[in-house]
Amino acid sequence: MLRTILIAAVLALFPLILALAQKSPGDGRATVRLMTLDPGHFHASLVQKEMYPGVSKTVTVYAPLGPDLLEHLNRIIRFNTRPDSPTSWQLDVHTGPDFLERMLKERPGNVVVLSGRNRGKIERIKASVEAGLNVLSDKPWVIRAEDLPKLESALATATTKGLVAYDIMTERHEITSMLQKDLVNDAAVYGNQLPGSEQEPGVYMESIHHLMKMVAGAPNLRPAWFFDVLQQGEGLTDVGTHLVDLVTWTLYPRTLLDYRKDVRILAARRWPTVMTRAEFQRVTGEKDFPAFLRDDVKDDRLQYFCNTQVAYTVRGTHVKLDVLWNYEAPAGGGDTHLAVYRGSKARIEVRQKGEKTNRPELYVVPNTPADKAAVSAALNNKVQAWQRDWAGVATEDAGQGIRVTIPDKYRVGHEAHFAQVTERFLHYMQEPKSLPAWESANMLAKYYTTTAGLQLSHRAASVMSQK
Question: What is the rounded distance in angstroms from the CA atom of residue 391 to the CA atom of residue 382?
Fold first, then answer.
């Protein structure tokens, strides 16, 4: 019965999609055509929130029939029908259980876009590049340490075939991340990176997300499989991917890391966010815990293991990350982010408190009062240099530190970063030799860190349970 309803719903959408498509002009000299594979997460649709020169307006979607596909189609329709700068995508939808095999056989495009269930994603990426297709995929590519050789193989194949296999690292395009990176690499402001220790790391990051979110007064429902850590991954291997990426991207730009030599995992632990049956119903719309989650239900509460802390070193610099998921933010609050880099002259901090504007702010905090004059002068020089690319960025005194003030025009938001990543990917497709070699090497280092950290957290939990 449900399948019949879903089929009817999909068919009902097709006339609107086709009507919108007929209003758009031809593709002209488009050299890129997208194929969206099993869009189980809304990030897949965000790649199409904007149009791109040289990219065909026709996108082929291969996916199983179900709610994930319907949500994806609805989002693209909303982009096509929005009053301001509407898109003009044409969707060619193919459903069925053999969606991957059919895509690899028919190959109507040359780019595969993936975002959805994370376990098994690397097999789809690997199959795509082996078939000669470029890949633009949302994180994480792997959530298990045993899948790292598949990632290494996929990246090597892409290099050999002259393809681009690119990880959607949106946080690199956040203005505070870009400016923080620039300051950390300015010796006059920052000094030298302090190696730190496990107790007082040279880099500390904390990311707090919330499971229950309200959008336009209604709950933003998550699919039930989101809470299966075997499909979605745990905190470190999912959201933590961004944090690990930012650390190496900031500290070691243009450096090829060897994860076998440069990364050491020191300590890790994991713990659950506990949900009642009513809370699970509210966040998913499901009536009961599904069968695949029953092993994680204790005393009628879901033990969702989405929180991870990890301590590691990368080239001798101590790093500590806290990746956390709470059920719901307090009234007026939201997701938060903290990133602290400790240099010999100053700390460079991004703080997002989840209140009021709920946006990240950048601070420079001299280590001692005696450092403030020199750090302030060096920061003023840096701000003057920034005017070429970021006109209007300035500073203001913030007590013990200095706040970098950033005009609203540079705060484009998380969704806009997907278009920025896609534009970078398209540039690399046009000029494959411009894709830096460090991207592949550091992707391996990143996923080694997340998966090895998760492994250690499981071992630590096992030891604790035996005591």
Answer: 12
Return the C-alpha torsion angle 196, 342, 244, 209, nearest 10. 120
**CA 417 – CA 86 distance, rounded (Å):** 18
Give the mean model confidence (pLDDT) for residues 162-181. 97
238/323 Cα distance (integer angstroms): 9
* Domains of the chain by residue range: 2-168, 172-422+448-457
Q: Is CATH 3.40.50.920 what the domain over 172-422+448-457 is classified as, yes or no?
A: no
Q: Which residues pair with 134 in a beta bridge?
A: 111
Confidence of residue 217 (pLDDT cuts 50, 70, 90): low
Per-residue pLDDT of 26-63, as tens digits, reads: 466 789 999 999 998 889 999 999 999 999 999 999 99
**Spatial CA neighbour of 183 closest among 406, 336, 446:** 406
Give strand pairing partners of 208.
324, 336
The pTM score is 0.92
Q: What 8-state DSSP symbol labels residue 193? A: B
Which backbone phi and psi does 111 adopt, to 5 degrees? Answer: -130, 130
Q: What is the pLDDT confidence band of residue 20, given thresholds at 50, 70 and 90?
A: very low
Q: What is the dihedral of CA 107, 108, 113, 119, to 10 degrees?
A: -30
pLDDT at residue 221 in the model: 86
Instruction: Output the six-digit token pair for 276.
Output: 């009642």
| pLDDT band at residue 21 under the 50/70/90 scheme | very low
Q: Are the C-beta atoms of residues 345 and 367 closer than 8 Å to each other? A: yes
Query: In the CATH hierarchy, which fold is given to the domain comprising 2-168?
Result: Rossmann fold (3.40.50)
Between 334 and 444, the more confident residue is 444
Query: 61-97 pLDDT, tens per residue?
Result: 999 999 999 999 999 999 999 999 999 999 999 999 9
456 closest CA partner among 280, 295, 237: 237
CA dist 283 and 94 (Å) reads: 29
The one-letter amino acid code at 407 reads P
* Residue 3 reports pLDDT greater than 50: no
Q: H-type helices in 143-216, by residue range?
A: 148-161, 175-184, 187-190
Per-residue pLDDT at 333: 82
Spatial CA neighbour of 112 closest among 175, 154, 67: 154
Question: What backbone torsions phi and psi does residue 293 show, to the nearest 5 degrees?
Answer: -105, 0
Residue 371 makes CB contacts below 8 A (sequence gap 6+) with 345, 346
Beta 401-405 vs 361-366: how paired, if at all? antiparallel
DSSP letters, 98-144, are THHHHHHHH---SEEEE-S--TTHHHHHHHHHHTT-EEEEESPS-SS
In terms of phi and psi (left: phi > 0; alpha: psi -120 to 50; beta: otherwise), the region of 54 is left
